[in-house]
Design brief:
Layout: H1 12-16, H2 24-35, E1 46-49, H3 59-74, E2 80-85, H4 92-100, E3 103-111, H5 115-120, H6 127-139, E4 143-150, H7 157-169, E5 174-179, E6 182-183, H8 187-193, H9 202-219, E7 222-226, H10 232-235, E8 240-242, H11 249-265, E9 277-282, H12 287-291, H13 296-302, E10 307-312, E11 321-325
Parallel strand pairs: 1-2, 2-3, 3-4, 4-5, 5-7, 9-10
Antiparallel strand pairs: 6-8, 9-11
Helix pairs in contact: 2-3, 7-9, 9-11, 11-13
The protein binds iron/sulfur cluster.
Iron/sulfur cluster (SF4) is lined by residues 3, 5-7, 10, 12, 52-53, 86, 109.
Length: 326
Amino acid sequence: MACPFRCVFCNQQKISGHFKSPDFNEVTRTIRTYLNTFKAPNKQVEVGFFGGTFTGIPETIQEKYLETVQPFLQAGEIQGIRLSTRPDYIDKNILERLKHYGVTTIELGAQSLDDAVLKKSRRGHTAKQVEEAATQIKAAGFDLGLQMMIGLPGDTLEKSLATADKIIAWGASNTRIYPTLVIKDTVLHHWYKEGKYQPLSLDEAVNWSKSLLIKFENAGVQVIRMGLHPSEGLLNGEEWIAGPFHPSFRELVLTEIWYDLLTKHFDSQDKSFTAKQLNLEVSPKEINYAIGYSGKNRKMLQSFFREVRFYSNEKLDGREFRFHLT
Ligand code: SF4
C-alpha cells in the first residue's frame, strides 16, 4: 500500500499475490473464516499483517486495521497480533501505538546485516538501523522476529552466517529464511537479463539454509519459514523468472540435515552391510525428513544395505534415532 522503496528483488504486488490491500470488512471476514476452521482446544491464534511495511502506512489506516482485531482479542478468540515492517519504520510513538492495540510480535525485514549487501540491494537502511530498531522493540516488551534473505547481490555464505549471528545476538526469538528469487519486472530481473546478477542454485540455497537452520536451532531461535510461499504465480512460472524456488524447500533442507546425520553414522564402504537389513526408528515428526524428499535418504541407504525399514517411535525426540541390524 505505502512502501516508497524499491528493493531490487521486490515487486510488492506480485509477491503478495493480491493486487489491492484488503478492506476492513474483509479483514473481519477473513479472521472469522479461519477461526471457524480451528477446532482444537487450548489453541494459540494470532492475526498477522504481512506483505508490506505495516508501520509505514498512514496512521489512521494502521489503527483501523488494528481495530478490526480488537473484538476477537477481547473475546479471547485471538491471543495476539503480529506484523512485518521495515527497521527504519520503528520509533517510540509507533511502538506505543502497536502496544495499545495488542500487537505482540514485530517482524523486521532485515534481509542482510552486511552493509555492502544492503546497499547493493537498495534496501535504504543500514545494519545499524536494524540493531537500533531491534533494541527498541525488545525494550518495549515485544517478541522480535528478524527475517533474512540469502543470495542477495554481493552475498556469500560467510556473510549470511554472520547475519544469522547478529539476528541471534540482537535477541530475535524467530526468523524466516528466504532465498532470493528473480521476480518478473524487478530490478534484479533486468540485472539477470544483462548478466549482472546470478541467483543461487537450488543446491546452494538448500546448503546455505541447512547451515543457517542448524545455527538458529542451536541458539533457540525458531525458524518459522524457509522459502517463499508457493503462491500460484510462482508455481506456474508467470512471476518467477529464475532462482532457487521449490514448493517443498523446507523439506529439501531437512532432508539434507538427515542425509548428513545418516552418512556420518553408516559407512557406505562397510561391506558387511550388504547382507544386512537396517531398521531405523525416528520420531514421527521427523520420519518424512529422515526418509528424505522423494525418498532420497532411503535410496542412499538402500544402495549399501540389503534392506532398509523406517519406523516411527514416539519416545524419540528431535533428530534422535535408534537402529538395529538384522
Ligand atoms: S521495503 Fe519491503 S515492500 Fe518495500 S520494496 Fe522493499 S521489500 Fe518491497
